[in-house]
Design goal:
Largest sheet of chain B: 2 strands, antiparallel
Number of helices of chain B: 1
CATH superfamily of the largest domain in chain A: RNA polymerase sigma factor, region 2, helix turn helix motif
Low-confidence stretches of chain B: none
Number of strands of chain A: 0
Distance between the termini of chain A: 61 Å
Strand order of the largest sheet of chain B: 1-2
Helix content of chain B: 25-40%
Structural class of chain A: mainly alpha
Largest sheet of chain A: none
Structural class of chain B: alpha+beta
Order of helices and strands of chain A: HHHHHHHH
Shape of chain B: elongated
Distance between the termini of chain B: 61 Å
Order of helices and strands of chain B: HEE
Mean pLDDT of chain A: 85
Radius of gyration of chain A: 29 Å
Oligomer: heterodimer
Mean pLDDT of chain B: 79
CATH class of the largest domain in chain A: Mainly Alpha
């Protein structure tokens, strides 16, 4: 209890401007927080980073006066570090890394970009379906969409070729896409490779 | 004698952040100031 009381006093002293209080708080809880992070990520450098980010967040929150959990300093800091650990794993899932140590496999980095037979067939089918959908569009929208997507013309060039303003061409393109999406949704068409 | 092939769990001793990390945090705290202006909060780092 005395410990909790002291934490809350240190926190309020720190908020009032006593920088030394932060040092005491870090000193008091560093081992528990650091071990907690390490137990999750099992890497010294990452633990160090997350530990640092945790306290940067603590410092910012306290200095902004957004802290309102007096007496529960450690659980609060633990929660911040826990959230940062989750963020770390999420980030790594989005950007998987390849480690080059040990039995490094070059094919984990280089992949065969050519489509296999099955994927080629699927790709052709998808392209054929898209063509058929495009053919269903009103003539003015189809014209703009074909020029933009298949001939790669700019909207300025399209407006010159079709004799309408750029805004009209943009509008037709927009409606073409909306209509395509509508038809795709309506008929539950799956256009994925 | 039975051999134990399981990995030992991480050692608890020496589980402390580097001194540089803590120094950085203390210096960061000293350098950071938050300025309130019309219900807005601005962070400034004075190094």
């Amino acid at each position: 209890m005395a410990q909790i009381l002291q934490d809350s006093i240190l926190v309020s002293n720190y908020i009032k401007g006593d920088e030394c209080s932060l040092g005491v708080l870090i000193e008091r809880h560093k081992q528990r927080i650091y071990s907690f992070i390490y137990s999750k990520v099992l890497d010294r450098d990452i633990t160090e980073d997350i530990f640092q980010d945790t306290f940067i967040k603590v410092i910012k929150t306290l200095k902004k006066g957004n802290y309102n959990e007096e007496g529960k300093f450690l659980p609060w800091v633990m929660r911040i570090s826990h959230n940062l650990v989750i963020d770390h794993f999420r980030k790594n899932n989005r950007m998987p890394k390849y480690d080059n140590n040990g039995d490094f496999n070059i094919f984990s980095v280089l992949s065969d970009t050519d489509l296999n037979a099955e994927k080629k067939i699927i790709k052709n089918q998808v392209e054929r379906d898209v063509r058929r959908l495009v053919d269903e569009l009103p003539e003015d929208q189809k014209e703009v969409l074909l020029m933009r997507m298949y001939q790669d013309l700019s909207f300025k060039e399209i407006s010159e070729k079709t004799g309408v303003s750029i805004n009209t061409a943009l509008g037709r393109m927009r409606y073409a896409l909306i209509n395509l999406r509508k038809v795709i949704d309506k008929h539950n068409i799956v256009l994925t490779n | 004698m039975a051999k134990n092939y399981t990995k030992s769990s991480f050692k608890k001793k020496n589980m402390l952040p580097k001194k540089e990390t803590i120094d950085f945090l203390l210096n960061y705290s000293k350098a950071l100031s938050v300025i309130n202006y019309k219900r807005m909060k601005f962070e400034t780092l004075l190094n």
